[in-house]
């Protein structure tokens, strides 16, 4: 949230916002009930998750390759998991509560180890 | 069309942090639009009518847009963009700018089919150069699922509820693409976010037209239609595969169907996962599903015949 609301005489005419894309300061990740976990070993980099993600939460490097999930904004809708074409799926949903206090790597091992 | 890896390198026009529901397809559509637009060549200016997308992506003092974006009232996204476009033309003539700018008006079905219709019709008639994108979520979802003229036959909403006497909306939905087509504009199309390549091609084509263009996009609404958030893209795909939402374009009056399902699924496949159609599956309501199927078939066959005909508008004069 903005730390302090603007006074009436500080607001720009027409309610203009000078700062494009400043909603990045508002983190929507706290909405999440379930979180997707990504397995880079089976991922084929088809980028379907990227094109269908409503919250632009698939992290991409400069080569256009997926590098992970942005948990500060991911709302946990699960579209990426549903659209993942690999078999077995390279993305899986787990409950947010179960992920508390674990690193991404630990979670990945825990979720995907049963399939190996 | 480039591969997705290529497109993923581009700077996003719509950033995260917007407050749309989890699993909402509004941003999916918009991100695909930005991915398709050739932003190296031209800049984009957007006018958005009131609706879910507008209120959740422009919550003062935040904005999720990386491009110039102007909020207008429910009814006048098309008028707003006309004004901006007219000013741009004057500036260009007077030499105040030499930038190449393309214009997009954004609205949902309430702001297109009903409230914004006269503004849209007027803007197309005046021949401004802009692309109008209607994200059709089949009702006034921003205020909590009230019936609009885009609500399909049998759909239950808060103002057309199903009960002992009524079965949801009794009228079929408006065929907006045909209505817009009646303005004889150069390019009109219907698309779905599930078929991203098709949608991107259409956006690319439409932005390059020198004149008004219209794009109707299905926007499955998880809360209003009543399905789990992760199903959104699948519902859009089912709408396409059952021919409830045919993917086609009208170029100078000539119909081109972009996607013909190998096996046309029965409409029940599309209706079943959605809570707003749950009452159609009750005993004694079988006739409603038959009626729904009949309407879908009629429209699909009409489109097929029009495509077969292949007549362009204005070429039969001789």
Can you put this structure into words, describing what you see?
The complex is a heterodimer of chains A (116) and B (318). Chain A is of the alpha+beta class and 116 residues long. Chain A is built from 3 helices and 4 strands. Chain A has one domain (26-107): 2-Layer Sandwich (Alpha-Beta Plaits), CATH 3.30.70.20. In chain A, the strands form 2 sheets. Chain A has a two-stranded antiparallel sheet with strand order 1-4. In chain A, strands 2-3 form a two-stranded antiparallel ribbon. The mean pLDDT of chain A is 89. Chain B has 318 residues and is an alpha/beta fold. Chain B has a single domain, classed as Thiamin diphosphate (ThDP)-binding fold, Pyr/PP domains (Rossmann fold, 3-Layer(aba) Sandwich). Chain B is built from 12 helices and 8 strands. In chain B, strand 7 (248-251) and strand 8 (254-257) form a beta hairpin. In chain B, helix 2 packs across helix 8 and helix 4 (77-94) packs parallel to helix 6 (117-126).
| Average of per-residue pLDDT values of chain A | 89
Largest sheet of chain A, described in full?
Answer: 2 strands, antiparallel
Strand content of chain B: 5-15%
- State mean pLDDT of chain B (0 to 100 scale): 93
What CATH first level of chain A would be assigned? Answer: Alpha Beta
- CATH architecture designation of chain B: 3-Layer(aba) Sandwich
Provide the number of structural domains of chain B: 1
Q: Using only CA atoms, what is the Rg of chain A?
A: 18 Å
The CATH topology assignment of chain B is Rossmann fold
């Amino acid at each position: 949230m903005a730390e302090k609301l603007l006074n009436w005489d500080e607001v720009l005419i027409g309610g203009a916002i000078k700062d494009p894309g400043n909603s990045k300061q508002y983190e929507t990740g706290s909405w999440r009930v379930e979180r997707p976990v990504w397995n880079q070993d089976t991922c084929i980099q088809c980028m379907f998750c990227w094109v269908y993600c409503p919250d632009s939460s698939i992290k991409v490097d400069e080569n256009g390759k997926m590098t992970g999930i942005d948990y500060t904004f991911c709302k946990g809708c699960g579209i990426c998991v549903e659209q993942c074409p690999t078999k077995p799926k390279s993305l899986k949903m787990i409950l947010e509560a179960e992920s508390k206090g674990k690193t991404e790597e630990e979670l990945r091992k825990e979720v995907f180890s049963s399939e190996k | 069309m480039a591969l997705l890896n290529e497109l993923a390198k581009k700077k996003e026009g719509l950033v995260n942090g917007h407050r749309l529901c989890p699993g909402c397809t509004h941003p999916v559509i918009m991100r695909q639009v930005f991915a398709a637009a050739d932003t190296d060549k031209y800049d984009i200016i957007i006018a958005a009518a009131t609706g879910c997308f507008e209120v959740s992506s422009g919550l003062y003092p935040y904005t999720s847009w990386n491009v110039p974006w102007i909020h207008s009232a429910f009814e006048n996204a098309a008028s707003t963009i006309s004004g901006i476009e007219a000013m741009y033309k004057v500036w260009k003539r007077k030499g105040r700018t030499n930038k190449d700018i393309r214009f997009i008006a954004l609205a949902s079905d309430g702001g297109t089919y009903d409230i914004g219709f006269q503004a849209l019709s007027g803007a197309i008639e005046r021949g401004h150069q802009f692309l109008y994108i209607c994200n059709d979520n089949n009702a006034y979802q921003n205020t909590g699922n009230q019936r609009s003229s885009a609500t399909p036959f049998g759909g239950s909403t808060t103002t057309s509820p199903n009960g002992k006497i009524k079965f949801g909306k009794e009228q079929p939905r408006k065929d907006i693409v045909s209505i817009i087509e009646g303005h004889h504009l150069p390019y009109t199309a219907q698309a779905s976010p599930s078929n991203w390549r098709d949608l991107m091609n259409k956006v690319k084509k439409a932005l390059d037209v020198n004149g008004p263009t219209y794009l109707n996009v299905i926007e499955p609404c998880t809360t209003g239609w009543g399905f789990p958030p992760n199903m959104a893209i699948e519902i859009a795909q089912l709408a396409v595969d059952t021919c409830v939402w045919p993917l086609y374009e009208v170029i100078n009056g000539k119909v081109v169907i972009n996607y013909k399902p190998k096996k046309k699924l029965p409409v029940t496949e599309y209706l079943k996962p959605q809570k707003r159609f749950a009452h159609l599956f009750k005993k004694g309501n079988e006739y409603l599903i038959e009626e729904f199927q009949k309407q879908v078939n009629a429209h699909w066959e009409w489109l097929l015949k029009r495509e077969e005909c292949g007549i362009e508008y204005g070429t039969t004069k001789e």
